[in-house]
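WARN retry 2 of 3 for item q-0093 after timeout on previous attempt; input resubmitted unchanged.
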Amino acid sequence: MSSQAQSIHVITVDSTPAKAKDFLAGLIKATEKDYSLVHVANCEAIKDVKPVLTSLVIAPKVLICSSKLFDEEEEEIREIAQRILPDIKLIMVPHDLHAPGGGNAVVEFLVEQITESKLPTKE
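OK item q-0093 returned
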């Protein structure tokens, strides 16, 4: 049989860890046939991004930013992440996405971003 799929480690940046966990649980469930996503950490503040990214033994492939962040905060996170891990896939959840469609709209957006990426799929 085939070997176990390569895990894709995911980091989130969200001041509400429970919400980040819920969104990622929905994303993982929706993509489990094709991807082996693992939520390894959540950063509750920008100041946590660098320490988390530099302390992990296995580098994350994806960083997802909450829709609650301001543009300047997203840009700061983008700069930090790309300086440490130039190949990391950054997903910035649009600011207006959560309100009209609720959590389902966010999960659908994340699924679309993952499936359109060049991340390794299960074989």
